[in-house]
Amino acid sequence: MVGDNYYELKMDFDGLVEVQEACLLNGQEVGPQYILNRLRELEATGGGFQSVGRWNPMWVYEVLRIALVRGGLEPRKAIKLCDRYIREGFVMDYIDTAADALFVGLYGPDDEPVETPGETMTEATSPTPSDESNGASSMSSPDQSD
Predict the structure, then answer these.
(1) Which pLDDT belongs to residue 13?
(2) 64 three-class SS
């Protein structure tokens, strides 16, 4: 959820590359896994003093902007939403959403069965047709207009 509406958020490989290029810490690019780790740390600590200098609030903005655009929202609308609810609102309100978008882009949805090398999925662990429609790298929500 961004603002008062649900939007589809999608983070695929190209989105992860875009996140890395857009996100800096002390003038240096940082990767999506590093960003995910820092955002999860912020979730756990509530953004306390120990987090100072270890994250950049623009990460939340950029991750969500990219995920909204890759989810199908017009780029200008994504910027408008991020400006209104993150830049002019409260960054901490969107840390979970940004972290979730990165997690799905890196690892797939939580409920996706994991196949290990040398092992095949059985009927009991195979995804159902409704599971497959969710997509491995997107978080879907009903799309509503701004």
Answers:
(1) 96
(2) helix
